[in-house]
Amino acid sequence: MRHIISVLVENEFGVLSRVAGLFSGRGFNIESLCVAETLDPTISTMTIVTSGNEAIIEQVLKQLNKLINVIKVVDFKELDYVSREMVLVKVNAEERTRAEILRMTEIFRGKIIDVSPKTYTLLITGDDEKLRAFLTLIKPLGIKELVRTGPIAIARGEKVIKLKDKPLEGGEEDG
Amino acid sequence: MKKTGAQIFVEALKIEGVENIFCYPGGATLNITDALTDHSEIHQIVVRHEQGAVHASDGYARASGKVGVSLVTSGPGATNTVTGIATAYMDSIPIVIFTCQVNTMLIGNDAFQEADIVGITRPCTKHSYLVKDVKDLARIIKEAFYIARSGRPGPVLVDIPKDVSSGICDFKYPEKVNIRSYQPTYNGHLGQIKKAIKQIAASKKPVLYTGGGIITSGASAELVKFAEQLSIPVVNTLMGLGGVPGGHKLFLGMLGMHGTYAANMAITSSDLIIAIGARFDDRATGKVDEFAPHAKIIHVDIDPTSISKNIKVDIPIVGDSRSVLKKMVEIVEAEKEEFKAYKASIGPWLNETEQWKKNFPLTYVRNGTLKPQYVIEKVFELTDGKAIIATEVGQNQMWTAQFFKFLKPRTLLTSGGLGTMGFGFPAAIGAQVAFPKSLVVDIAGDGSIQMNIQELGTAVQFNLPVKVVILNNGYLGMVRQWQELFYEKRYTWTCLECAPDFVKLADAYGAAGYRIESEDEVESVLREAFHNGRPTLIDVKVNPEESVYPMVPAGASLKEMLLV
């Protein structure tokens, strides 16, 4: 099962390596990882996509919480959320394909962010499915290079991930 | 007041109450080494190898309950600590390791004696710091000690570059630690505890399965009280030995691969396992799918990651063993009525466990040869069980766990999780530093003792009268035993054909040396050795092919025991 996990960490050197080392050392999967500073410059958010059965995900969450520099861990499976990722694609843009690429980009509400005599560079955002659909369509036209972020996620509605104490893990509460 | 980093280091240690450090000098330690010159109130035990320093600080911590401290130089000095750190990490021992580092300007340049020790030890430390600015040093030392001893304890490494120890700043030691991302849970959730108590009241065959958490949290008295209150049989893990007095009527012995018949059968027949401060290690559980097949499981542990890691738990309680046990004792006391039916029906279970204990005790064949088990029984007898016992790893460790009936917590120092050969002797040195007047005995094998034998120099230099009983069988016995049972007796690599004359070796170091070759010498030689006041090696020529039984083969279920 695929999980998106948001990890609030101290914005210090070495923290990324602790988190990455935890995944490799314990044999957990890491499909993608996005890291950036939050509004509070002392804190960074890591958005990690991982997969595994229930027991593995439980360990991932607990082990992350155990790291001294980790302030909070949120598994988005427990929340209603929206997520987006972004892809930059450099495609061949020849006389006969230019119009088609433009049209496709428009349909997917993407943008052309760089142009050269022979190429377009496109920016598309969306969820995994949308990006895959777009790439399938654009592929026959000749993709020269592709760069993709992993997803970032945020809870829907008014729910905010607050920076309080670490939540007490499953074991603590009833059930 | 302005101080150098090295002076801040010394002051901080004094405020933390550090009385002993285990150290080894090098270019990068010099600022600190020099600052310690006039501070004999911090006793500085200089070892012979950095691995020895960390094991000694670990043994010091295990025996005393205080944080053990070591200090070594950069590069190879730092990398030599790794086995010691990993050993302490696996057994949750509170130690702080200070490694020195090349100048901050040189870090990353492959400078002479540079190693990224924070990177190297990241997976085997509870936490680690590279101090980049002398202004951070006091706070980091404060945090390091706090993190090492709080929650589930563990090793914390602090890497101090040479220009940080020479740097100057105002010294003010913080009074409080404030780490927003680290707040260990000590008190168990009351609702969960009550649920557990209800479950116990409804059980007919409960077993307390307890481990190192009992020792760490000082919960022995509470555990014994709770067990007695409800007449619950207790099994210990290796790390938990001493948590219940070895001769207690409810104590069934150690469980697991070399556990007692009674302990393993009790687990297998139980309808409720109450695990406290234990972590369901594979050596304890045997085949996980067949561990306690009829039981519900209550698990009390301060570390949430230990819960439901290997075995699915029915009632998890995150908290400190002592505080949770205390609460449980209170609740049982207040709700005596609830336990009427339980008490009326517990008799048959106690009889059953008592029968196992009586019919299948730990035993060995006395046939006129010198048996290692006999030697350990004699060590127990001659010390009234009051010695602090360290072990190496392998057969010596298992026989000690079986035949020395540990009476009190913190009297067994053994590398349970990592299984580090060479641990016992330096650990015994550390314990002797903590308790100069106690008798400290390392029960060793001829293989293990050679892994850190250089520390004889340390023991002699600092007058630490540690006794090393070498159960010398000429083999790496535990591996040989596996070869005997599972590899058609092909003793590849395990026969130590060249060993030193341990008596002469002791003499060469200025220690006392004895040799025992038959049963009738055991008592008199041990008696003399235990009273000679000197560091001592006792070379005991035991029966070479003696094996440790009972045994549950790796991967088998606990009920599939080879008895002899």
Describe the model:
The complex is a heterodimer of chains A (175) and B (564). Chain A is α+β, with helices and mostly antiparallel strands. Helix content of chain A is 26%, strand content 37%. Chain A has 4 helices and 9 strands; from the N terminus they run βαββαββαββαββ. Chain A has helices at residues 15-25, 54-66, 98-107, 128-138; strands spanning 2-10, 32-37, 43-51, 70-75, 81-92, 111-115, 119-126, 143-148, 152-155. In chain A, strands 5, 6, 7, 8 and 9 form a 5-stranded antiparallel β-sheet that branches. In chain A, strand 6 and strand 7 (119-126) form a beta hairpin. The longest helix of chain A is centred in the middle third of the chain and has 13 residues, at 54-66. Helices cover 37% and strands 16% of the residues of chain B. Chain B has 3 domains: 2-170, Thiamin diphosphate (ThDP)-binding fold, Pyr/PP domains (Rossmann fold), CATH 3.40.50; 190-359, TPP-binding domain (Rossmann fold, 3-Layer(aba) Sandwich); 372-541, 3-Layer(aba) Sandwich (Rossmann fold). In chain B, helix 2 (30-35) links the parallel strand 2 (20-23) and strand 3. With 564 residues, chain B is α/β, with parallel strands linked by helices. The chains are: A alpha+beta (175), B alpha/beta (564). The interface between A and B is medium-sized, with 28 and 30 residues.
